[in-house]
Amino acid sequence: AAPPPEGPPYRAIAAATAGTAALLGILGAVWWRRRQRPGPVIPPDPPDVQARRSWAAARSAGLDDHGLALALSRILRVYIEQTQGWPATARTTREIIHHLEAQTTMGTADRLRAAAVLDATDRLKFAREGGGAAFFDRLGDDFESVLSALHSAPATPGAAP
User: Fold this and answer.
1) 36-40, 78-82, 90-94, 131-135 — which is least confidently predicted?
2) Are 141 and 86 in contact (CB under 8 A)?
3) Beta carbons within 10 angstroms of residue 45's beta carbon
4) 158 with 99: CB under 8 angstroms?
5) Which residues, including other chains, have CB under 8 Å from residue 121's CB and lie 6 or more apart?
6) How many Å from the N-terminal Cα to the C-terminal Cα in the chain?
7) Helix H segments across 37-132?
8) CB 108: neighbour CB atoms within 10 A?
9) Is 64 helix (H, G, I), strand (E, B) or coil?
């Protein structure tokens, strides 16, 4: 008589399934744990470094005078907004100047330089007055002075008029 046929290897199948499930569970737990860990937090550059980098990039981008005036005006407004906590990007030049006059964070000479930069960029943007390398070199010097003055001053958020 022939021996009876062997049944399926249920124990081997069960052991292989349990081992695979355990391995997948471990891999899932490792993935979940790694996913939950935040990466290293890199602090952003200070506002004055960002402003200087933006101005250098605008100067080297080959923009025409109008484009440089737009860039310088925007960079200065963003910098004032970041350091003063006041919405300078949504304000006119006159409103920004009045805000800076009301603050005690800058000296008179630096406020005048900020006003000179904003007025000169406005004249170039809207009336096409000014321009050229010497014009932007002079504005760059004033811009640098304003950055230094506001960087060394403590931040005091101002109220909108």
Assistant:
1) 36-40
2) no
3) 11
4) yes
5) 69, 70, 72, 73, 76, 139
6) 106
7) 47-60, 65-84, 93-102, 108-122
8) 8
9) coil
